[in-house]
Design a protein that fits this description.
The protein has 262 residues and is α/β, with parallel strands linked by helices. Strands 3-2-1-4-5-6-7 form a seven-stranded parallel beta sheet, with helices on both faces. The relative contact order is 0.15. InterPro entries: KR_dom, NAD(P)-bd_dom_sf, Sc_DH/Rdtase_CS, SDR_fam. GO terms for molecular function: oxidoreductase activity, acting on the CH-OH group of donors, NAD or NADP as acceptor. This is Short-chain dehydrogenase/reductase SDR.
């Protein structure tokens, strides 16, 4: 049997700093807790200070360290300001989670230009800017690092009723794999964490009763995922030890949804 020290060597993040953009949300908030539990100092990034405080208090109660920085993920100036603030306060960045996102269930012919542009701006531009600003820092630092972009099953296979969201997540997957190829020589790993169906604030209005029935019929596990069930995958992708040779991966956590046919 391997000792706890062995597991700490593989998955421990002591001395690391993790920036979680979208950390005020349910899924990325759980990921932030997991990163802090593994020893990382976590910077929770979002626009809702009240939600951030609740998460930070929970992390602190468990013996972890976290702090909040307000930033708009779609503004390069604010993302650059975020990096500058983290370097000033924490001295470094080792792990970046790009998880800000929004959804909509508007029928295709009713999607307005404003809605289309808003979803692409948040879901694609936000990831683009997070990768550009923090990726440049990590590449130029020359010590490696991990970028985890939040994808979606709709980025793997198109899902009905979420047309713009599906298109935006497809772009996130494609961008992530491109950057993984470009930055591998610099030991900067870029991966996509792909949740299946996890009830969260952004998708509750999409989960109508008939939709839930369809999802359960296509999910071998016969249930939704819980936010805490993303933590193990997060730590694998974040760790330079356990995940040292993992880049360009679309790591699916979906209760078997993608494996289901008939």
């Amino acid at each position: 049997m391997k000792s706890p020290d062995y597991l700490q060597q593989l998955f421990g993040l002591s001395g690391k700093v993790a920036v979680v953009i979208g950390g005020t949300g349910e899924l990325c908030g759980a990921m932030a807790e997991g990163l802090a539990g593994a020893g990382a100092e976590v910077v929770i990034v979002g626009r809702n200070a009240e939600k951030a405080k609740a998460r930070i208090d929970k992390i602190a109660a468990a013996g972890g360290k976290a702090w909040f920085h307000a930033a708009e993920a779609t503004s390069k100036a604010e993302v650059q300001g975020l990096l500058d603030a983290v370097l000033k306060k924490s001295g470094q960045v080792d792990v970046v989670v790009n998880g800000a996102g929004i959804n909509s269930a508007t029928p295709f012919f009713d999607i307005s230009e404003e809605e289309f542009e808003r979803i692409l701006r948040v879901n694609v531009k936000g990831v683009f800017l997070g990768c550009q600003v923090f990726g440049k820092y990590l590449v130029e630092r020359g010590q490696g690092g991990s970028i985890i972009n939040l994808g979606s099953m709709s980025g793997v296979v198109p899902l009905s009723r979420v047309f713009t969201y599906s298109a935006s997540k497809g772009a996130v997957h494609n961008l992530s794999l491109n950057l993984a190829r470009e930055w591998a020589p610099h030991r900067v790993r870029v991966n996509v964490l792909v949740p299946g169906f996890f009830p969260a604030e952004q998708n509750r209005k999409v989960l109508t009763p008939d939709r839930v029935t369809a999802i359960m019929g296509h999910t071998p596990a016969k249930r939704f995922g819980e936010a805490r069930e993303l933590i193990g995958a997060t730590l694998l992708l974040a760790s330079d030890a356990a995940g040292s040779f993992i880049t360009g991966e679309e790591l699916i956590v979906d209760g078997g949804y993608h494996a289901m046919t008939i």
